[in-house]
Specification:
Blueprint (H helix, E strand, L loop, with lengths): L2 E2 H11 L12 E4 L4 E6 L9 E7 L1 H4 L9 H21 L4 H4 L8 E2 L6 E2 L5 E3 L5 E7 L3 E2 L2 E2 L1 H19 L7 H19 L6 E6 L6 E3 L2 E4 L15 E4 L7 E7 L2 E5 L6 H10 L3 E2 L8 E3 L4 E3 L7 E4 L17 E3 L4 H14 L4 E5 L5 H4 L3 H6 L14 H8 L2 E5 L12 E6 L2 E4 L1 H10 L18 E3 L15 E5 L2 E4 L2 E4 L9 H13 L10 H15 L17 H9 L6 E3 L9
Parallel strand pairs: 1-2, 16-23, 16-24, 19-22, 22-23
Antiparallel strand pairs: 2-3, 3-4, 4-8, 5-8, 6-17, 7-8, 9-10, 11-15, 11-18, 12-13, 14-15, 20-21, 24-25, 26-30, 27-28, 28-29
């Protein structure tokens, strides 16, 4: 039988006033009256990273109805509701002056909240039997570097139980809130599951509110200022939901779709919503019924990024100096070569939908108009622009494209459909666009030659993926959503647009380190990613960190592959006829 509340109280009173390392006596499991408390890691200093704490509630104590935890989708929806609630309540706790004592973050309680997206995470884990585990950090109270045992007693035996009662049990939530969280999440998964059979790559439900408050605030714009989405009749489809009536909205069919329109009319807002539609969203977000092919990849130019052995020859031919573009490497790629590499890497990760906004694309990669063709001879231009490959991507590789375009009418010649945003409302202008293209021919000549999809396979060398530093086998530090210290290297992820949180970035970086075990001679990148995905599916996010932290959110393999490809130390070889898969 584990140690109980009286034992914990006794230890805290015994170590009161002693040096801070005395807190190490708390490590382990404590059986409290309403839940199990586990001290997984004790900070060595009040100024160090806070201590890691877990609480585990038995199903009878958590009290959630069996239907709320009946499917994985429902459990994920519930876990995010609980994590969001706990994180918000924890932020309201203000440690008293005596608890802080000027020593670090004494008395603070912190949980990683899920934000607007709904993803499997390690902050709150809901089991299939209804048990709940919550993971958070606590700054154990100190005065200077002395234990404040009485304050710690109040924190662990009064504040934490009150926080648990207020956020992690069924009675703490209105039944309607729990029901909406689990049903909305399950419905989003069900909507997404229908896309392929309907020949769609994305769906935006009528009534969706797509605008966000700002570029750094992912919450919805006030509904009084936002225009609800309404599909053009010609593109309207109706999809089934499991917990609500069928929903009508705009289906984006496979093929090449343009989003056109004047500036500030909502083109990029729609594209961004579709890009985030690879994830589910919380009730009230406005994008709950925006779903996208789960492998969709938003691509942009990234001047200065590192590229390792990518076959960009479908887009970039012979370069001055004779550099081999079938195995292109550069520590400082240009806008055009970086965008070409990103597309090929996305294909490597299994994407079936490319998303591009002309505002973040390299112009010379996207288009070479007739006048430029006449001025610069084809022999002197190594770039085959995207406009001349987008059709083959769809017809030969099965990869669709959704493209925001406002400055190049040449794309009207290659589009399967054209959707115009006018005052935030979509209009199907496909027929009008074809008439315009016919009436105003540009005289542009296609520069497309033969192409092979997919291109050459890459095999990452595990010796070049070095997460360790000095004596530490793993030195990974996440500074923000887009910057990671990885061993002696750094990974810059600003151009990987579909990472939604620092917790997901942390999981991406740990996944890159874990992926080394699948690498080897003749093992292609796509096989490494597939093996990693299978193991994550089987074992969960704790696979990535045996310390069982509460600050991880599930990444897609596209982002893991993108991070690995941006690792400046990465070396790859080309797969040969003996290419092997991971056992």
């Amino acid at each position: 039988m584990g140690r109980n509340e009286d034992d914990l109280r006794r230890i805290l009173r015994r170590i009161d006033g002693r040096g801070y390392p005395a807190y190490r006596d708390l490590k382990g499991t404590w059986i409290l009256p309403r839940f199990k408390l586990i001290v997984r890691r004790v900070q060595g200093d009040p100024f160090a990273a806070p201590s890691r704490i877990s609480v585990i509630l038995e199903p009878s104590r958590a009290g959630f109805a069996p239907e709320s935890v009946a499917t994985a989708s429902r459990r994920t929806g519930l876990s995010c509701l609980l994590a969001r609630s706990f994180a918000a309540e924890a932020r309201k706790i203000r440690p008293g002056r005596s608890a802080r004592g000027g020593s670090g973050r004494s008395g603070e309680i912190f949980m990683t909240g899920p934000g607007q997206v709904v993803l499997p995470n390690t902050a709150v884990i809901v089991a299939s039997d209804g048990a709940v585990e919550a993971r958070f950090t606590v700054g154990l109270p100190a005065a200077g570097r002395r234990v404040l045992g009485r304050q710690a007693e109040k924190l662990l035996l009064e504040t934490v139980p009150a926080l648990v009662d207020a956020t992690l049990v069924s009675a703490a939530h209105a039944p309607g809130d729990v029901r909406r969280s689990v049903e909305v999440n399950e419905d989003a998964d069900h909507l997404r599951s229908q896309l392929a059979d309907r020949g769609l790559v994305a769906f935006i439900g009528n009534g969706a509110l797509l605008p966000r408050r700002s570029g750094v605030d992912d919450r919805p714009l006030d509904e009084r200022r936002a225009t609800p989405f309404a599909s053009p009749p010609s593109l309207e489809v109706t999809l089934a939901r499991l917990n609500a009536p069928p929903l009508a909205g705009m289906g984006v069919p496979k093929g090449v779709t343009l989003l056109v329109g004047g500036g500030y009319h909502g083109k990029s807002t729609v594209l961004d919503a579709v890009a985030r539609g690879v994830y589910n969203h919380r009730p009230g977000d406005g994008r709950e019924c925006v779903v996208t092919d789960p492998g969709a990849a938003k691509i942009q130019a990234e001047d200065g990024r590192s590229v390792a052995g990518v076959d960009i020859s479908p887009f970039i031919g012979a370069l001055p100096g004779g550099q081999d573009t079938a195995r292109f490497s550069s520590p400082n790629a240009s806008g055009s070569t970086s965008q070409a590499a990103a597309i090929v890497e996305a294909l490597e990760a299994g994407t079936r939908l490319i998303l591009i906004d002309e505002d973040t694309a390299a112009t010379n990669f996207m288009i070479r108009d007739r006048r430029m063709q006449a001025l610069v001879r084809g022999d002197d231009e190594p770039i085959t622009p995207f406009i001349d490959r987008v059709g083959s991507l769809c017809a030969d590789a099965g990869v669709s494209t959704l493209l925001v375009i406002g400055g190049s009418g040449d794309y009207l010649d290659v589009a399967d459909r054209v959707v115009a945003m006018v005052r935030y409302r979509p209009h199907d202008l496909t027929d009008e666009a074809r008439a315009v293209a016919a009436a105003h021919p540009t005289g542009r000549i296609s520069e497309a030659g033969p192409v092979r999809w997919p291109s050459r396979h890459r095999c990452p060398d595990p010796r070049s993926v070095r997460p360790g530093r000095g004596r530490r086998l793993r030195h990974i530090k996440v500074f923000d959503r887009s910057t990671v210290a990885f061993g002696d290297d750094r990974i810059e992820l600003a151009g990987v647009a579909q990472i939604v949180s620092r917790a997901q970035t942390r999981a991406v970086a740990l996944a890159v380190a874990h992926a080394r075990r699948f690498m080897g001679d003749g093992v292609a990148m796509e096989d490494v990613l597939a093996a990693l995905a299978a193991e994550l599916q089987q074992r969960g996010l704790d696979l990535l960190d045996t310390g069982m932290p509460g600050n991880l959110a599930l990444p897609r393999m596209h982002e893991v592959g993108a991070a690995l490809s941006r690792l400046r130390s990465l070396h790859v070889s080309a797969a040969d006829s003996r290419r092997r898969s991971v056992d």
